[in-house]
Amino acid sequence: MLHGRTPSGVRFVFVAWPLAFLWHAAAMDDHATVDCKHPAGRFVPQIDPNRCEGKSACVAECPYDVFVVRRRERAELPGLNLLGTLKWWVHGGQQAEVLRADQCHGCGLCVSACPEGAITLKKA
Ligand code: SF4
What we know:
Alpha-Beta Plaits; 4 helices; two-stranded antiparallel ribbon; two-stranded antiparallel sheet; binds iron/sulfur cluster; 34% helix; 124 residues; alpha+beta
């Protein structure tokens, strides 16, 4: 039945979408229980403010809610260079912040998820 196709294709869509949703939900559940190799506090994520565009991939990926994305004042980001300042302004000041660094388990999900390559892990 999954591989069947009616002339209009309607049946395929109604069968496939719930299955795709369930598959996605299962994948997200696996993600939430990712097997991190390190105890909390061994690594600390570092955000390069000149790269961060506040896209929230880190917030979505981190199983330990280490990050928050919020509007940050220019004075909070003294390391911004000219291009970083321009990006900060264009994105309405939205940037990620490491809120719960002590909860980081060093899994690296945020590093691979960030589309700007803005996150690195440092030993605490
Ligand atoms: S490495 Fe990144 S995603 Fe993993 S726990 Fe630390 S902050 Fe969260």
